[in-house]
Specification:
Chain lengths: 434, 223
């Protein structure tokens, strides 16, 4: 019995290759689009090295404040990244987390060189020592700068493998000297390349921020804004409410002190989980989860509905061709429900094939077309985004793909199948749909 | 007790413009083991009658009883099961499923019963042996001649061991030699296996070989 489904699908392919192939490709394209949409969100949320701890990290990226007299949280705001002082007051002093790091929010493009080499323009991020505890970089040689290196402003640098090979032709370069922005540093470690999709950890060179004057680069009154973000590593994500509660206590106390300066920090639901950060990357609003889910559901619905309508009409035209067969089967004892089941299963086979094709298209496009899919305006100068295999081959991604296949199959075949099963048998045998 | 009983059967086809009376007040009793032929000019309603008996069309009014079962009272699933167990249909145009080979076509009615694949295969082979087509199990319908297709259609009709075989001009698309072969098979099924056969035909010679002939004209039984 099961063979009959495959035989009919093969027969349809032989009899009507164009219609069958268009049907498969239409579904495949829909799956491909849905998976790209899902992948674009997944790379922002799923853990991958060196952000393997995303599930345990909270982000304090921004601060919004206004006049203490202004009671409207949506107008007349100042927003931006944190100053070092603000970040320390709000985040470093937290007791509940495993670790807290303060680091430069976005890398700067900086010129570097080594003895005898031309100047290179690279991405440089300035961090504290805890940065290396929170993000799991893969060191090919050497190690990160330590707490004492940071506290004593030792001019040490961690560089990426590509930079090491470009400058020295090797990764065994610990102790070698490089010039960063006309200032000499010693290399203490070399790490594997980091995708710029790891937005918090990404750079090509990392140095202690205590070796520069970035902490002095503040604005706003009284020096609330600057260039820093905070990352908080919890022991477990169950600690998130406790950490947020502790943060709120500190924030309230901080706000009380700012009252004297007529400043009020606005609660924008900081610190944020990786998911909350992905849906609200900006500082001037709270993450709106329900809005995100509504928009996402609408987009997915449209992506499913359009090909479903297309497939439905193709199924209908295919049904015309084997209406006689439906009539014959019913004449020999096939129930209406069996007809429905037969048509749905046949479409399920086609959808499954289409699903595999769609997945393959998605993987190929995500790998080779990542420039197009993943580049955001603010990171477009920061190298080519790369997606790790662990993200692309995520089993949840596959499960979602097959779920969408199944829903697509149902949506496209159920109405034509119902119509076909309710045609008078003699009319069906004579190829009449009504 | 009649195997098939039709009383007061009417069939009217209605479209927006026209109303056509295909059958008018048909009363007919068919006994078990009978070989009945139904004759008449084109458009007289004989195929419509056969379709109604075969439960693939519904009368506008009237009563149909098959093997003591009142058909009107049955739901779709019951009708489907009844068709599968009691009736075997042979069409003038064979109506074999092109995407299936010979053995799969013959097995098809058995797929709607709860029997194993091996049992289905065995019964299908037996049916094909009865019609002399056991040497073409894996051929597709488009690889067979007209006569061979009709033999396969007969095998499909009898594989489920139905009590009633309904044949709508089974030799209409065949030459006389093949037509005679098909008729021999139907007579064998009737005489040796005791199946009730109702056949629509235009062929007087074939009709004479049957146990009884009824004639229709303009939807009414005239003989």
């Amino acid at each position: 019995m099961k063979n009959q489904y495959f035989k009919r699908v093969c027969h349809n392919l032989q009899q009507d290759p164009v219609v069958t192939l268009v049907s498969i490709l239409g579904t495949a394209l829909s799956i491909f689009l849905i998976m790209i949409v899902v992948l674009m969100k997944e790379v922002q949320i799923l853990p991958f090295s060196p952000e393997s701890n995303r599930n345990r990290i909270l982000h304090g990226d921004c601060i919004s404040y206004t006049n203490a007299n202004n009671h409207d949280d949506h107008q007349n705001l100042s927003c931006g990244m944190l100053s070092e002082t603000t970040a320390k007051k709000l985040y470093t002093s937290l007791k509940t987390p495993e670790a807290v790091s303060i680091f430069q929010s976005s890398p700067d493009q900086t010129l570097i060189s080594s003895y005898g080499t031309a100047l290179l323009s690279v991405d440089l991020k300035q961090t504290d020592d805890s940065f290396w505890h929170i993000f799991d970089f893969n060191f090919l040689s050497g190690k990160a700068y330590s707490k004492s290196d940071f506290n004593s402003a030792q001019k040490k640098a961690v560089i990426s493998e590509q930079i090491a090979r470009q400058l020295f032709g090797s990764i065994n370069v610990v102790g070698r000297k490089i010039t960063i922005n006309h200032s000499p540093y010693h290399i203490c470690g070399v790490v594997c390349e980091v995708s710029n999709l790891a937005e918090s950890a990404y750079s090509q060179i990392w140095i202690p921020y205590s070796t520069t004057d970035i902490a002095d680069d503040t604005w706003g009154a009284p020096e609330l804004s600057g260039s820093f973000s905070a990352a908080i590593l919890a022991y477990s994500k169950k600690d998130f409410p406790k950490i947020k509660a502790e943060f709120n206590t500190r924030s309230t106390a901080f706000n009380a002190k700012l009252k004297a300066e007529n400043i009020r920090i606005i609660d924008q639901e900081n610190p944020r989980t990786q998911f909350e950060k992905s849906i609200c990357p900006y500082s001037n609003g709270k993450p709106e989860r329900s809005k995100f889910y509504r928009q996402g559901a609408f987009i997915l619905f449209i992506l499913l509905l359009i090909p479903a309508i297309n497939l439905s009409s193709m199924t209908q035209s295919r049904l015309h061709r084997y209406m006689t067969e439906i009539g014959i089967r019913r004449a020999f004892g096939c129930h209406r429900s069996q007809i429905l089941k037969d048509i749905i299963i046949e479409n399920l086979i086609l959808s499954t094939v289409a699903g595999f094709v769609g997945l393959l298209l998605c993987l190929l496009f995500a790998y080779f077309g990542s420039d197009f899919i993943f580049t955001k305006n603010w990171i477009e100068d920061m190298g080519r985004p790369t997606v790790s295999l662990s993200v692309l081959l995520n089993p949840i991604l596959f499960l979602l793909a097959f779920l969408f296949c199944f829903v697509l199959n149902l949506m496209s075949s159920i109405i034509p199948a119902w119509q076909a099963s309710h045609v008078q048998i003699i009319n069906a045998i004579n190829g009449k749909i009504h | 007790m009649s195997m098939i009983s039709l009383s007061g059967i009417h069939k009217i086809y209605r479209t927006k413009e026209v109303e056509t009376q295909a059958l008018e007040n048909v009363n007919l009793e068919i006994e078990k083991g009978e070989f009945l032929s139904v004759m008449g000019p084109s458009g007289c309603g004989k195929s419509t009658l056969l379709n109604i008996m075969g439960l693939i069309d519904t009368p506008t009014s009237g009563k149909l009883i098959i093997s003591n079962c009142v058909v009107k009272e049955m739901r779709d699933k019951e009708l489907a099961t009844f068709r599968n167990k009691m009736l075997g249909f042979i069409f003038q145009s064979f109506h074999l499923i092109q995407s299936l080979n010979v053995i799969d076509n013959v097995e098809m009615p058995l797929t709607y019963r709860r029997i194993s694949a091996s049992e289905r295969h065995r019964l299908a082979k037996e049916a094909l042996e009865k019609v002399g087509m056991s040497h073409r199990l894996h051929h597709r319908p488009n690889e067979l001649s007209g006569g061979q297709c009709q033999r396969v259609a007969i095998a499909r009709a009898i594989v489920g061991n139905p009590e009633i075989i309904l044949a709508d001009e089974p030799t209409g698309n065949l030459d006389s030699k093949m037509g005679n072969e098909v008729m021999d098979i139907l007579h064998r099924l009737n005489k040796e296996e005791g199946r009730t056969v109702v056949m629509v035909t235009h062929n007087e010679e074939q009709a004479k070989r049957t146990s009884r002939t009824v004639r229709f004209f303009d939807g009414r039984q005239i003989e």
